[in-house]
Amino acid sequence: MILELDNKDDPRFAPxxxxxxxxxxxxxxxxxxxxxxxxxxxxxxxxxxFEHRWAEHIKEAMAAAGGFLVGRxxxxxxxxxxxxxxxxxxxxTIAARNA
Length: 99
What we know:
2 domains, 49% helix
């Protein structure tokens, strides 16, 4: 079974919530130990780490243009959700003014 989750509010995430706790950052060996310790007896689990290979092309394009990466960061989903809510509210305000 393959289950893709991109939102911790997705009801399908619920069974994993207790295993992951409040972890939102990079996966560390300690995170794996925590997940393994939380698995019930006689069960198994899988942890999947992936990388965004499409980002390699951005790095190559920047280098080809003489640019360089100053820094990088992961924006937590909660921040993106808050921003989305704020933008929707702003767009509703604009629509109400133009109505």
